[in-house]
Structure formats: C-alpha cells, structure tokens
Amino acid sequence: MHLTWLDSNSWLIEIAEKRILLDPWLVGSLTFSNLDWLFKGDKLQERPIPENIDLILLSQGLEDHAHPPTLKQLDHQIPVVGSPNAAKVVKGLGYTSVTALAHGETFKLNNQVEIQATPGSLIGPNLVENGYLLKELESGFTLYYEPHGTHSPQVKQLAPVDVVITPLIDLAIPFVGPIIKGTNSALQVARWLEPQVILSTAAGGDVVFDGLLMKLLKAGGSIAEFRSLLAQHNLATRVIEPTPGERFDLQLQKRASVF
User: What is the pTM of this model?
Assistant: First the structure.
C-alpha cells in the first residue's frame, strides 16, 4: 500500500493496484460559499492532477472535501463513491457513475478493494457525514479514514485496522468548541483499532489560510505529544509525518492469525 499526501484532506491511496483519489483539493482556492472574508485557503504550489485514477472517494459534501474547482477539472467518467451529500455535489457537476454510500453500506472496486462507509463528522444539527474503511481483499490490509476526528463507537468492531488517517492536532473556536478533534480522539481510536501506522490529516501541508475564521481558530497538541501519549499507553503504532507530494510505502506487516 502506498500513500501520497496532497495537502489538507487530499490523499492518493494506492491499494491493490488501484489508485483512489480521496477528498481532492488540487487546484484553485478553497472557500466556503465563496465567502473569502470568512475563510480562504491557497496552495503555495498547485499539485499536478494525478493520472490514471480508478476511483474518487468523497467523505463529505462540503467544499474542503468535495472541492468544486477540482472536481470540475477531473475526468467526469471516473467513478465516484461518496456520502449522500457528496454524491449530490458530483451529480450536479455531471459525473456519470456515482454511488452514494450510507453508513454500513459497502462498495467493491473490481473485486479488489472493499469500501465500507462508517459514521463520520457531524455537520450542522442533523447531518452525519462519512468515514471509510478500505480493505485490500487479497492481502486483508485495511485503512480507516475520518477527517474531523469524530470516531463512532461502531468502528470498534472493525479492529484491528492496519492504517488510520485522522487529525492528530486539535482545532477549536473559543466558546464554540472543537471543529477538528485531534490528540485525545486520535488516541482513543488508536486504542480501539490498534493500527500499525497512523497519519495526520486536515492540518499543515504547503497551504496558507486567511480570513476571519483563521483569526478565531486555536490549535492544540503536536505530533511529538501524540507520540508520547502512544508510548504512555503501550501502543506500538508508528506515527508517520508525510511530506506533501511525496509517495511512500507503508511497509505493513501481516498480522498473526488467531484461531
């Protein structure tokens, strides 16, 4: 299994010889409802759009996960799997093969990769978006992704999981609360799933942010602090800090079978 972090929540996942583009923001600025004054993200360098993509996977319908300028540039013939809210976005852009996954539902990519939707982030008062478990069917290796650090207790039944991608740094608005749950939430899911590897998403990368929201946000925690917490809880999980744009091999080990 190979991963390439493309900044923010965007990843290229290479699994079972398939190339899956996850929550891509690759071109243009990132805003919400074109409110630049509230929030705007710009890349220090735009990443080339990866070639030979087999599937686009979207966890949410918000612009930082289903980024309209990027989705407009991608080939609309590429199959898309997403939350029901994300599926509406890509259908509106003219994509021809779109599968909406409700929580607990699965999708198989060429009988090589199984994708299961899990409960993810709460967006607004009633909408719970998606997390995902990806499983390489031949090897059995698994990857779990949740981009806001909202981990449903239901994911305990997925254990053990080999790779977890989730925030490791907290982002909160004073008097409002966390919008990204990092340190403690990541520790909790690491204890539940006992991954071989955990990687941070949602923060950092070659990106600059501006706007009123950025003046209000407060960050907490660090990668070093998280590593220390893993050691304190006797967890052997490796923390990888990816370099944006660099492809790397996860070098996973087969787990011993239990009978």
Answer: 0.93
